[in-house]
Amino acid sequence: MSKQFLKKGKLQLVNGGYLSNKKEQPVFNAGFVLAQQHAEYVVTFAKMAKDKNFKETKVDSIADLQREVADFIDKNKPTKFVDSPKEVKQPTKDKLATEALAFIDFQKDSTRVDKINNFLQQFTVLSEFEEFGLFFEEDVVKLTKLYTLKEVVDAVSETIDLLD
Q1: For 10-40, how does the pLDDT look when each residue is reduced to its tens digit (9 = 90+)?
Q2: Using CA atoms, how far apart are residues 159 and 46, in angstroms rounded to an integer?
Q3: pLDDT at 105 exceeding the cut of 80
Q4: What secondary structure, in 3-state letters, does the chain show?
Q5: How far apart are CA 22 and CA 143, in angstroms?
Q6: CA 139, 145, 150, 154 torsion: positive or negative?
Q7: Listed residue (163, 139, 155, 157) closest to 30, CA to CA
Q8: 147 with 13: CB under 8 angstroms?
Q9: Per DSSP, what are the bridge partners of residue 11?
Q10: For 46-96, what is each residue's pLDDT tens digit?
Q11: What is the pTM of this model?
């Protein structure tokens, strides 16, 4: 069996999904095929999970509503005889709070990016194929679609919290 060095754009699926070069000769690379099969799962998972709601929600009950109505009616607003003092503006405290929230958001985003990058390590072979190319042997394999690294990255970015 001879090996062929193929780059991005030099592969295609023919006759219902057989992986081949542009001359329609069958080719195979075990790592590439495994990554493509895993990419199919991840991209399909992301598409199907898109419109799903996985968050718990509180169920309203009639008893809770009756309690809320009773509490609302029972609480008569007391008459004000003296006005409350005006709140003191605290720009420094507001700036610190804004900065603290920005730091927390940064930490969340950093953690999320790390999770995405760690998950995508499984697709290094796709990155190498798109950037440099890979050696393929002559063999027959059938795939559904050739997924790009961008498609995989987009799918993982959308669903990383579900894929963990």
Answers
A1: 999 999 999 999 999 999 999 999 999 999 9
A2: 6
A3: yes
A4: CCEEEECCCCEEEECCCEEEECCCCECECHHHHHHHHHHHHHHHHHHHHCCCCCCCCCCCCHHHHHHHHHHHHHCCCCCCCCCCCCCCCCHHHHHHHHHHHHHHHHHHHHHHHHHHHHHHHHHHHHHHHHHCCEEEECCCCECCCCCCHHHHHHHHHHHHHHHC
A5: 16
A6: negative
A7: 139
A8: no
A9: 21
A10: 998 887 877 777 777 888 878 887 777 777 666 677 888 888 899 998 889
A11: 0.72
**Structure tokens that stand for 129 in this block:** 């194929």
Give residue 143's identity as a one-letter amino acid code.
L
Tokens of 128: 């190498």
**Both tokens assigned to 147:** 């997924």
